[in-house]
Amino acid sequence: MVRNASLVQDIARQRIDRLINMAAEKASSRPDLSRRYISMALTISRRTRVRIPRSQKRLFCKKCTTFLLPGKTARVRVRQHRSPHISVCCLVCGHVKRYPLRRSG
Ligand SMILES: [Zn+2]
Protein backbone atom coordinates (compact mmCIF):
# COMPACT_ATOMS: atom_id res chain seq x y z
CA MET A 1 0.00 0.00 0.00
CA VAL A 2 1.38 3.31 -1.07
CA ARG A 3 -0.20 5.28 1.76
CA ASN A 4 1.40 3.13 4.41
CA ALA A 5 4.83 2.98 2.83
CA SER A 6 6.31 5.79 4.88
CA LEU A 7 4.83 4.40 8.08
CA VAL A 8 6.34 1.00 7.35
CA GLN A 9 9.68 2.62 6.65
CA ASP A 10 9.47 4.59 9.88
CA ILE A 11 8.92 1.44 11.90
CA ALA A 12 11.63 -0.35 9.95
CA ARG A 13 14.07 2.45 10.68
CA GLN A 14 13.33 2.21 14.40
CA ARG A 15 13.71 -1.56 14.41
CA ILE A 16 16.99 -1.44 12.50
CA ASP A 17 18.30 1.15 14.95
CA ARG A 18 17.29 -0.93 17.95
CA LEU A 19 18.71 -4.15 16.48
CA ILE A 20 22.06 -2.51 15.80
CA ASN A 21 22.16 -1.10 19.34
CA MET A 22 21.36 -4.54 20.72
CA ALA A 23 24.06 -6.05 18.55
CA ALA A 24 26.52 -3.52 19.98
CA GLU A 25 25.59 -4.48 23.54
CA LYS A 26 26.05 -8.19 22.90
CA ALA A 27 29.08 -7.87 20.66
CA SER A 28 31.59 -9.19 23.18
CA SER A 29 29.41 -11.29 25.50
CA ARG A 30 27.24 -13.02 22.89
CA PRO A 31 28.77 -12.65 19.41
CA ASP A 32 26.31 -15.24 18.06
CA LEU A 33 23.30 -13.17 19.16
CA SER A 34 25.00 -10.01 17.95
CA ARG A 35 25.40 -11.49 14.46
CA ARG A 36 21.78 -12.55 14.49
CA TYR A 37 20.63 -9.01 15.30
CA ILE A 38 22.71 -7.58 12.49
CA SER A 39 21.36 -10.04 9.95
CA MET A 40 17.81 -9.26 11.08
CA ALA A 41 18.51 -5.55 10.63
CA LEU A 42 19.88 -6.26 7.15
CA THR A 43 16.81 -8.32 6.23
CA ILE A 44 14.47 -5.53 7.34
CA SER A 45 16.59 -3.02 5.44
CA ARG A 46 16.36 -5.06 2.24
CA ARG A 47 12.65 -5.77 2.48
CA THR A 48 11.59 -2.25 3.26
CA ARG A 49 14.32 -0.52 1.24
CA VAL A 50 15.33 1.46 4.30
CA ARG A 51 19.00 2.31 4.16
CA ILE A 52 21.18 1.76 7.17
CA PRO A 53 22.93 5.05 8.00
CA ARG A 54 26.57 5.18 7.06
CA SER A 55 27.65 5.67 10.67
CA GLN A 56 25.97 2.39 11.61
CA LYS A 57 27.02 0.54 8.48
CA ARG A 58 30.63 0.92 9.54
CA LEU A 59 29.98 -0.92 12.76
CA PHE A 60 29.65 -4.40 11.31
CA CYS A 61 31.09 -6.65 8.64
CA LYS A 62 28.65 -6.86 5.76
CA LYS A 63 30.05 -10.20 4.73
CA CYS A 64 29.63 -12.20 7.92
CA THR A 65 27.60 -9.66 10.00
CA THR A 66 30.10 -9.70 12.86
CA PHE A 67 30.04 -6.57 14.97
CA LEU A 68 33.43 -4.97 14.50
CA LEU A 69 35.24 -4.25 17.74
CA PRO A 70 38.68 -2.76 17.04
CA GLY A 71 41.33 -4.93 18.67
CA LYS A 72 38.93 -7.80 19.13
CA THR A 73 37.01 -8.67 15.98
CA ALA A 74 38.54 -6.05 13.72
CA ARG A 75 41.94 -4.69 12.84
CA VAL A 76 41.92 -0.99 12.09
CA ARG A 77 44.87 0.60 10.33
CA VAL A 78 45.59 3.94 8.77
CA ARG A 79 47.39 3.41 5.50
CA GLN A 80 49.30 5.81 3.33
CA HIS A 81 49.46 3.52 0.33
CA ARG A 82 48.10 5.33 -2.75
CA SER A 83 45.62 7.76 -1.25
CA PRO A 84 45.47 7.79 2.56
CA HIS A 85 42.72 5.56 3.89
CA ILE A 86 41.60 3.62 6.90
CA SER A 87 41.42 -0.11 6.44
CA VAL A 88 39.19 -2.18 8.67
CA CYS A 89 39.83 -5.90 8.50
CA CYS A 90 37.26 -8.31 9.91
CA LEU A 91 39.18 -10.91 11.92
CA VAL A 92 36.38 -13.46 11.59
CA CYS A 93 36.11 -13.74 7.80
CA GLY A 94 39.01 -11.57 6.64
CA HIS A 95 36.86 -9.11 4.73
CA VAL A 96 38.57 -5.72 4.38
CA LYS A 97 36.76 -2.42 4.16
CA ARG A 98 38.53 0.77 3.16
CA TYR A 99 37.50 4.30 3.93
CA PRO A 100 39.30 7.13 2.19
CA LEU A 101 40.56 9.92 4.39
CA ARG A 102 39.40 13.19 3.01
CA ARG A 103 40.52 16.53 4.18
CA SER A 104 37.58 17.96 6.02
CA GLY A 105 36.60 21.51 5.22
ZN1 LIG B 1 33.50 -10.61 8.46
Tell me what you see in this structure.
The structure is a single chain. Helix content is 42%, strand content 16%. The protein starts with a helix and ends in a 5-residue tail after the last strand. It has a single domain (5-100), classed as Immunoglobulin FC, subunit C (Single alpha-helices involved in coiled-coils or other helix-helix interfaces). The chain is built from three helices and three strands. Strands 1-2-3 form a three-stranded antiparallel β-sheet, with no helix packed on it. It has helices spanning 5-26, 31-48, 54-57; strands spanning 74-79, 85-90, 96-100. The longest helix has 22 residues, at 5-26. By secondary structure, it is an alpha+beta fold. Zinc ion (ZN) binds next to loops.
Per-chain topology:
Layout: H1 5-26, H2 31-48, H3 54-57, E1 74-79, E2 85-90, E3 96-100
Antiparallel strand pairs: 1-2, 2-3
The structure holds zinc ion (ZN).
Let me know the largest β-sheet: 3 strands, antiparallel
Lateral strand order in the biggest sheet: 1-2-3
CATH class reads Mainly Alpha
Determine the CATH topology: Single alpha-helices involved in coiled-coils or other helix-helix interfaces
Give me the number of helical elements.
3
Radius of gyration: 16 Å
Number of E strands: 3
CATH architecture: Up-down Bundle
Q: Can you identify the CATH superfamily? A: Immunoglobulin FC, subunit C
> Ranges with pLDDT <50 over ≥5 residues?
none
Cα distance, first to last residue? 43 Å
Proportion in β-strands: 15-25%
The global form is: globular
H/E series: HHHEEE
Helix/strand class: alpha+beta
Bound molecules: zinc ion
Query: If you average the pLDDT, what whole number results?
Result: 93
Q: In which range does the helix fraction lie?
A: 40-55%
